[in-house]
Amino acid sequence: MLSIIERVGNLLADLGETDCEALGGGALAQPVNAITSLSYVIVGAVIAASAARTGRERPSSFVYAACLAAVGLGSVAFHGPQTSGSQVMHDLPILITALFVLNHDVAVIRQTRRHVWWTFGAAAVIATGISVISTEATAVLTGVVIVGVLIAEVVIDRRGLREIDRRRQRQAQVAIIAVAAVAGASWLLGRSNSPVCEPDSLVQLHGLWHVISSVIFGLWWWLALAGGGRRAA
Question: What residues does 162 pair with on adjacent strands?
Fold first, then answer.
């Protein structure tokens, strides 16, 4: 237990050091990375407003929007004031958002929404416990869940389980893949050990990662929720 606490303490002491931008003092230790984190909040707000206006998939859209807002605010805390617990505030919302997507996709594959909120709630509680105990385990679990999402999306596509025009679906999928490729490149190049890393520059590729990845989250909502998933009895 002591070793875990020590590891968490070391991580908190070095928050953001792998994200290229130089660490400063004050409320915004990494200004660019902190401010661009708000892109998740903006996308979440757009989703919530759209769901409120159209009424389409309103409960799921509101919960998803709240997850994205939590991702953004957690990232602001991580790159900004870097208070105690910022690592958990950064990592946990990402994991819960990924779990939301996987839980939704599994329900689409099973063609039933029975107990869908119970399973998501239970998964979120378990994820919270894991995040508090070990940041390393949180990172591993997030990776596993994301792989699960990718597999589920392939299954949904192959089976044609979304009630959306195939042409529009293909357009959304191509857009997501293209944007994801750019996002992945910006994440890799935005690391501190990247050859293009310039810690004191106002142009931070990790900040670009924040913006582009938030767009991916928005595109998934448009495809999976706003586009109308198949509703099974």
Answer: 229
- Stretch 10-21: mean pLDDT: 62
- Assigned domain for 13 exists: no
Q: Are 17 and 34 spatial neighbours (Cβ–Cβ below 8 Å)?
A: no
Token readout for 43 is 């996308």
Taking the C-alpha atoms of residue 196 and residue 207, their distance in angstroms, rounded to an integer, is 14
Helix or strand or coil: residue 212? helix
pLDDT at 11 over 50: no
| Domain carrying residue 163 | 26-226
Q: Is residue 16 part of a domain?
A: no
Indicate which CATH number applies to the domain containing 103. Answer: 1.20.1070
Q: How many domains does the chain have?
A: 1
Backbone angles phi, psi at 213, to 5 degrees: -65, -35
* Full-model pTM: 0.85
Instruction: Quote the CA–CA distance of 146 and 46 in Å, as a whole number.
Output: 24
Q: How far apart are CA 72 and CA 35, in angstroms?
A: 9
For residue 96, tell me if it sits in a domain.
Answer: yes
Instruction: Please give the Cα distance from 62 to 47 (Å, whole number).
Output: 8
DSSP 92-147: HHHHHHHHHHHHHHHHHHHT--TTHHHHHHHHHHHHHHHHHH-HHHHHHHHHHHHH
Q: What is the pLDDT of residues 68-105, one digit of tens each?
A: 999 999 999 999 998 888 999 999 999 999 999 999 99
Torsion (CA) 62, 63, 68, 74 in degrees, nearest 10 = 130
